[in-house]
Amino acid sequence: MSQAQYDLVVIGAGSGGMATAQRAAAHGARVAMVESGPVGGTCIHSGCVPKKATWLAAQLAYAQDIGREYGFPVKPTKIDWGAFVERRDAFIAGIERRYRERFASAGVEIIAAEGRIVGPGRVRAGERELGARHILVATGSRPVVPDIDGADLGETSDDFFGWQAQPRRVALIGGGYISVELAGMLCALGTEVTLFAREQQLLEKFDAESADFLASRMRGERIDVRCGVDVTSLVRDGAKLTVECREGGTKAGFDRVLWAVGRAPRTRGIGLESVGVKTDGRGRIEVDDEFDTSAAHVHALGDCSTLRPLTPVAVACGRRLADRLFATGEPVPVDLGLIPSVVFGHPPLASVGLSEAQARARHGDGITIHRGRFRALRTALGGRDCESFVKLICTGDDERVIGLHMVGENTDEVLQGFAVAMRCGATKRDFDATIAVHPSTGEEVVTLV
């Protein structure tokens, strides 16, 4: 079999794989990207983009209620779910089309096939065999469905974005960010939502106090949040579904049940063992600080690796990898120690730096915490008694800011600027000396006592 030769073969066309391929091609490398599904991966097709689009629709629905409270004669209306899904899908199709055009212009060959490593420097792509100086594995992840009775009656976040009609009642199982985000969206759009979480608190990887505050806000928005509940089975009762729990009895009458209990890396069956690529106990590819695996000239990033599973992280790491492999000069470093993150809940939770528990584990008693609660003008003017929350964690005599956590309207947009400040070593004194924008959410961070 003849073998085409490439400088880089990328297995997977998600955000990390695309970013690496594009940057490598810009440096003059000959690049092939092997992908059996749509170009764009989870982020474009069943993650960030359709999620944010649905969240924006939910915010508009919520704004209708506030508008009536302000005095606008707005009649209660529900979203035309089918029309919205059609518009959202068309938008995503346009993104994928532009990506394909961009790669064609850059000279990146996209091969529509399953990719598998078959030996050092060799990748099988369908009926073709490709030779590669470097191989990047960026195959992403998939939703996990637990092994319990009736599990197949439930769906996953991938299925959610294919729903053609809005259900009246939905059960979400899981306490992570996917469950929290979908719960908020569906509730704001008029669906009755129950969230079952095995954990004692939502969002265990985030600051506990902030996560508890968000859970309280969610309950205030009529989301039935049940923590510390272990779902044991799903049962069909005619056209409806029943969720059975070990601790919490049963709850019936759901139109749909959605699993959001985690994601697993797509690393099986892609030939990692043929070149000795090591994985951890969860099947994630182990990588070092330069995104190299245990096999020479094989690299990995994104959700299939041990890196933090966030699109901007995969993109930044991919560009850094391409610069290191194919550019001259010193690549721009990637700071993975200070990653801003937002849970697009209702309201959003924004976080950068250490949680309180992490800060205490690292600095002991050498931390100070500043907290504040406030009522955002937009909702307060409408007579709504819903607070927002901000928490600043500092260390040292100069109170260097090492953690910022916010829950409330606009915190998602406010966070980015403060992340830059923290990366530059900002202290509480720097925040105090900054003139506030009044009235705003951001001013609450620089006026904390």
Automatic annotation (TrEMBL):
Cofactor: FAD
EC number: 1.8.1.7
Disulphide-bonded residues: C43-C48
Binding site for NAD(+): G174, G175, G176, Y177, I178, S179, V180, E181, G262
UniProt domain Pyridine nucleotide-disulphide oxidoreductase dimerisation: residue ranges: 339-448
One MF term in the entry's GO annotations: glutathione-disulfide reductase (NADPH) activity
GO biological process: cell redox homeostasis; cellular response to oxidative stress; glutathione metabolic process
GO cellular component: cytosol
Residues that hold FAD according to the record: K52, G115, T139, G140, S141, D303
UniProt cross-references to Pfam families, sorted A to Z: Pyr_redox_2, Pyr_redox_dim
Residue ranges of every copy of the FAD/NAD(P)-binding domain listed in the record: 6-316
Active site, per annotation: H438 (proton acceptor)
Family: Belongs to the class-I pyridine nucleotide-disulfide oxidoreductase family.
NCBIfam families named in the record: PRK06116.1
Protein name per the record: Glutathione-disulfide reductase
Species this protein is from: Coralloluteibacterium stylophorae
Lineage: Bacteria, Pseudomonadati, Pseudomonadota, Gammaproteobacteria, Lysobacterales
